[in-house]
Amino acid sequence: MTRKWIVMLLAVLALAASVFLLVKDNPGTANTKGYKVPPTVFIHGYKGTYNSFGNMLNRFENNYKWGDKMLVYYISPNGRLQVDNMGYNGEKPAFVQIVLENNRATFKNSAYWLSLALHHMKTHYQIDKVYLVGHSMGGIVSVKYMEDYQNLKNFPQVNKFIAIGSPFNGIYDKKYFQLHHDAAAHDLNPGSKALMDLRRNKDDIPDNIEALSISSTGDHVAEADSVKGLQKIFPAPQLQQKVIADEHLGHSMLHESKRVDFLIHDFLYGD
């Protein structure tokens, strides 16, 4: 057994031993038997909160009637999961929201916390396939999850992945790092070891995952050239790239844009 597989096995064992679970008393239970498409898991970005994807998922569920929110995971830095279960009847696509209490952590730590939620989905709700949607650093964390956990049987397999305004080459604005000095900011620096590792480990991502990158010409945090860095991880046959030409569509507005909504819908659920 190679050293890498030993490390990954130990990570799985540690995961199983360390998770403390608190489930809210919400009506209904998640029942994924017979779901028509894999549940879609949404991961916020750097300094993100419940509100990062809250409005988008409200539109998906209540305005467009595209699906139903099934689960919300709140994850503490010590691996404690609080699971808000809305119930699910299997009729429409299911949405799962991830909220990290420490929203300024490294890519590695954030991917580990994401893996706790996905491990719980696999073991408690028999969800063996998912779609991942990440905004900003959430897209990068999703790639880190796929590289570190995708090939382990304890976790759901990713079929489709969307990165929204994710700076895979780092954030170019030097002034950004005069204000932000935490672990996540260190990883988001162009040329950081964390970003280089994503490229070095790209072969750990299966070649059957379809990926979509969404960006905007008005995004001055995740600039177009940095967003295109995803093509150094996903080869052309697997990757689609959509650039919205709108100088008023900034970084934090991407998850509030109806144009982004429909790009997500068409890629995940379109015929």
UniProtKB/TrEMBL annotation:
SUPFAM superfamilies assigned: alpha/beta-Hydrolases
InterPro entries: AB_hydrolase_fold, DUF915_hydro-like
Keyword Protein transport: no
GO molecular function, one term: hydrolase activity
Superkingdom of source: Bacteria
Key words, A-Z: Hydrolase
Gene3D superfamilies: alpha/beta hydrolase (3.40.50.1820)
Full protein name: Alpha/beta hydrolase
Source organism per UniProt: Tigheibacillus halophilus
